[in-house]
Design goal:
This protein is α+β, with helices and mostly antiparallel strands. The protein has four helices and six strands. A hairpin with a 4-residue loop joins strand 5 and strand 6.
C-alpha cells in the first residue's frame, strides 16, 4: 500500500481543488470564513495562495527573509509588509504582542502561517485575531 502524502506536500492543483471542495465560493458571500480556515487567500491582483502549514516562532522568523511576500491581517483587513519593515513588525509582535502602530492588548494574538502560490512563491501570512 502506497504511503499517502500530507495535504501540504501534494501538488498545488490538488490542494486548490480540495480547498474549493471544502468551502465553495458561493459559501463566501458574507466574507467568512477567513483565509486560515479556508486554506486559501486571493490577493488584490487575483493571485491565489494556498496555506501549507502553521509556523512556529522560529519558522516565521526564518521566513522573514525567505518569503517573497508577507501579509498581516484579520478576516476584514489585510496589509502587505515590505522587506525593509518585516523585521521591525515581527519584533514588535514577538516582544509586545502587537504591531508597532498598536497599543499592547491582552485581546490580540498573531499566528504565523506559510502560504504558497502555483508559481512556487512563498508568503508569510500572519493572522491577527481579537
Amino acid at each position: 500500500m502506497a504511503k499517502q502524502r500530507k495535504l501540504e506536500d501534494q501538488p498545488f492543483g490538488e490542494r486548490l481543488k480540495r480547498s474549493f471542495n471544502r468551502w465553495p465560493p458561493d459559501h463566501l458571500l458574507n466574507g467568512e470564513p477567513d483565509a486560515i480556515t479556508l486554506g486559501r487567500w486571493e490577493d488584490e491582483s487575483g493571485q491565489v495562495w494556498l496555506k501549507r502549514r502553521s509556523l512556529t516562532t522560529s519558522g516565521a522568523r526564518k521566513m522573514l527573509t525567505t518569503a517573497e511576500v508577507m501579509v498581516i491581517g484579520d478576516p476584514d483587513q489585510h496589509r502587505s509588509v515590505n522587506g525593509s519593515e518585516r523585521q521591525v513588525v515581527w519584533d514588535s509582535i514577538e516582544k509586545l504582542g502587537c504591531l508597532p502602530e498598536e497599543e499592547p492588548s491582552d485581546y490580540l494574538t498573531y499566528e504565523p502561517y506559510e502560504f504558497d502560490s502555483e508559481d512556487g512563491r512563498t508568503m508569510l501570512f500572519v493572522q491577527r485575531q481579537c
